[in-house]
Amino acid sequence: MLNNFLISFKVKNAYIVNELIYNISRIPLIGKLIPNKFYKYKFFKIISIIISIIYNIIKIFGFKLLYIYCFLVLPFNNVSYFALIQAFLFLAILGSFINTEIFNPTKDKYYMLILMKMDAKSHTIGAFLYFICGIFIGELVALILLTSIPWYYSLLLVILTIMLKFIAINFYFYRMKKSGKVINENKPESWLLYSLLIIIFLGLAYGLPYLNIIIPKFILWIFASIIFILGLISIKSIITYPNYAKLYKKLLNKDNLFLDNFAIQRNAQISTNLKQISVDTSITSEKSGFQYFHDLFVKRHSKILLKSAKKTTTGILIIGIILIILLYIFPEFKGSANKIILNYLPFVLFLMYFINTGKSVTNAMFMNCDHSMLSYRFFRQPQTLLSLFRERLKTLILLNLLPALTLSLMISLILFVSGGASLITYAVIFFSILSMSIFFSVHNLVLYYLLQPYNIGMEMKSASFTIASLITYWVCYYISDIEVSSLTFGIIMIAFAIVYSLISLILVYKLAPKTFRLR
């Protein structure tokens, strides 16, 4: 058992270092410096071991400290330690059925049990004992350090938590025997029942102390005794369970392992998009060449392309009207509103980051057009790409101008109602917001063409694109906190948008034929 656990640990370190090297190799410029032979260097193996040790320390102590602080210390003020014990037990019951380890399909189990044919029972019990030891040490330390619960009660609570894990696993074994279905703790059979149980136990954990209802000590002691006895009985079932190999053969399938939440969302999005594409054969266009091709795409995908812009525009309009009405009802806030508009225009840049539909539109372009078209050589020709890029940029700018114009008008109206400003200030604020919209339209489409992030499976796999998106977010976020005259910032923003757009377009014309390809 110990030998199997050590082998598992080594395998986990192996794919940690491989993933580390692979992710580094995907970073622009730096990645080119890393040849494939780096996979065999001991230096990276040492790094992987260090990372693994740090991760396990954080998992054992950091996560438990955070859990106890967020779920037990933070919600309760000036309550008896017995109220904390009561709340902890309800949380432990809920957590025991949500996180069992044995019914959690993970890639390392797939590598060890399916690919390397390791003995399922030996591996499972060894990994589960490590999991239990982590709970024992982590929770005990967290309870003693962060709560007022005496150490002997903390020890009892941790033991009961472990016993509850045994009971939950034994219960799942019983359910499998009766239903013939393999339990996957990440995919409940009924999300409604699952959600209802979470609400009930969270309600008991936090609701009872809030209502000053503390269960008598003798009832809790009886309850703890029952848990302890059932836990001891369940240990035997876990140790002697004969069908671990059969269990994992069914549990460790590709849908459970490789179809993550992002993949599920992506498949749902593809399905939704297909329903919104018009199949009306009478839709046509008077244009020619790739203008005709793009015009047909826009008309047949108008629901997808316009959906986000329409919702955003409606939301801006409603919020703007409400704010104007509130300023008339509460005129004492007019001065503050006027000051905010005249000094905090940088915040609008951060707002435009979220309002802009560039990412969703390029996503639709790839899923419903480029995913297939990039397979053809003629579509990857420089003249074709650049011709289509021009048409797409026009469309994207027009789509984003709809909410941008609405936002500009609403801000101008609020500025007028709250006290007004000079004509030049109105003009700069109005056109600077439009320039922000154009900037993000150009930025998103240029990133799409220069760093095409999707692979043939329609998964986002570009580290360069992710890094560029994160940099864009953080720059907008930090700029939003700057207090500067809206007139000054607006002029700078208009000039920057023009210069950035020109440089970006030049880069696309020079590089897109090489970078815009199917991964």
Describe this structure in words.
The protein is mainly α. It has two domains: 59-258, no CATH class; 289-515, no CATH class. The chain is 77% helix and 0% strand. The chain has 20 helices and no strands. The protein has helices at 2-25, 42-73, 81-98, 107-115, 120-146, 151-179, 191-210, 217-240, 244-251, 254-257, 261-276, 289-300, 302-329, 334-343, 346-355, 358-373, 382-417, 423-451, 463-480, 486-515. Helix 13 packs parallel to helix 17 (382-417). The longest helix has 36 residues, at 382-417. The chain is globular, with a radius of gyration of 29 Å. 25% of the residues are buried. The mean pLDDT is 82.
Q: Would you list the SSEs in sequence order as H and E?
A: HHHHHHHHHHHHHHHHHHHH
Q: How much helix is in the residues?
A: over 70%
Helix/strand class: mainly alpha
Q: What does the largest sheet look like?
A: none
Q: Termini separation (Å)?
A: 42 Å
> Which outline best applies?
globular
Q: Can you tell me the residue ranges where pLDDT is under 50 for at least 5 consecutive residues? A: none
Number of helices: 20
The fraction of residues in strands falls at under 5%
* Rounded average pLDDT: 82
Give the beta-strand count.
0
Q: Mind telling me the C-alpha Rg?
A: 29 Å
